[in-house]
Design goal:
This protein has about 290 residues and is mainly alpha-helical. It folds into two domains: about 200 residues, Rossmann fold, CATH 3.40.50.300; about 50 residues. It contains eleven helices and three strands. The chain has a three-stranded parallel beta sheet with strand order 1-2-3, sandwiched between helices. The longest helix is centred in the last third of the chain and has 53 residues. The protein is globular.
């Protein structure tokens, strides 16, 4: 985080020769579960979101998601990531130079088109499509078709909150559209997500402060109890006399402290009485008394 902040938040006036960055791409390769559902992944995302406008780009292998089953699997993954991270998301269909991603966009916007593709796979007796080989998974399943149909209906609302772009890392096709989607989601982050993140951060700080106050109260209570523990029994007559003298001194000191407390309380009440002439001061006095201060 310190490296990113140093490179991106540098004042151009202080270092005119420094290269200014407009976008930062953070790649998180590996299994989705390891990053999204781990403590380290959450910490990293929260750190990024607290310092920069943060957008999730979920990259999908377009040729390998051309069947209804793998497509729906990717959509469920994207849905889980969206609700886990609570950040703006872009669906990026990669490798469009191999297979066009228009079919996926159509499935997301036209329920009947997805139903037609699903019926076609059922009639062919295979789920898995082109990426599953010549025969797909083999043997159409009525349960599978019903399940995918239900999922498509459930995720229809989810699709409305996503930006979808098709890109080709090989040819660079669609990169401009991708960064346009990033800019759109950046504005969405500033408008909708950042206030919620700030609110949660303030709540966490408030909880930490409350815990610190509770721990401090327990510490003071423990210190007070420790000073009142029973003293050891005197071993000799001289020890008993010294202990008696000490007890008398402590009693006198305690009486002096109580007198000081009474005097302080009396002076406080007198000050309140003297300053109760104006309406503002009367209001403040009532507030103090109602708060049991």
């Amino acid at each position: 985080m310190s490296i990113l902040e140093k490179r991106t938040l540098t004042d151009p006036a202080q270092n005119p020769t420094a290269k200014q960055f407009k976008h930062i791409l953070v790649d998180t390769p590996g299994q989705i579960e390891v990053f999204v559902w781990s403590a380290s992944g959450s910490i990293l995302l929260e750190s990024l979101a607290s310092s920069f406008p943060t957008v999730i780009a979920y990259v999908i292998d377009t040729p390998r998601t051309s069947s209804t089953s793998t497509f729906m699997s990717n959509m469920l993954y994207a849905c889980s990531i969206l609700y886990k991270t609570k950040l703006p998301m872009i669906l990026v269909f990669n490798k469009t130079d191999v297979k066009d991603a228009e079919f996926a966009k159509e499935w997301m916007t036209d329920f009947e088109a997805f139903q037609a593709a699903l019926r076609e796979e059922e009639e062919a007796g295979a789920f898995g499509g082109a990426e599953g080989g010549a025969g797909g998974m083999g043997g159409g399943s009525g349960y599978m078709g019903s399940y995918l149909n239900s999922m498509s209906l459930m995720l229809e609302e989810f699709y409305r909150h996503l930006s979808v772009v098709g890109v080709s890392s090989m040819t660079g096709q669609g990169i401009d559209e991708f960064f346009e989607a990033v800019e759109e989601k950046r504005k969405e982050f500033e408008q909708d997500y950042k206030p919620e993140l700030d609110k949660k951060r303030a709540e966490r700080e408030k909880e930490k402060e409350s815990r610190r106050e509770v721990e401090l109260g327990k510490l003071l209570q423990d210190m007070n109890v420790s000073t009142r523990t029973k003293k050891d029994e005197p071993e000799t007559v001289s020890d008993a006399e010294e202990e008696s003298d000490t007890d008398e001194d402590d009693a006198q000191a305690g009486q002096a402290d109580r007198r000081d407390d009474v005097g302080l309380s009396q002076r406080y009440k007198t000050a309140l009485a003297d300053t109760s002439e104006t309406g503002q001061e009367d209001s403040f006095t009532r507030y103090i008394r109602s708060s049991n201060v």
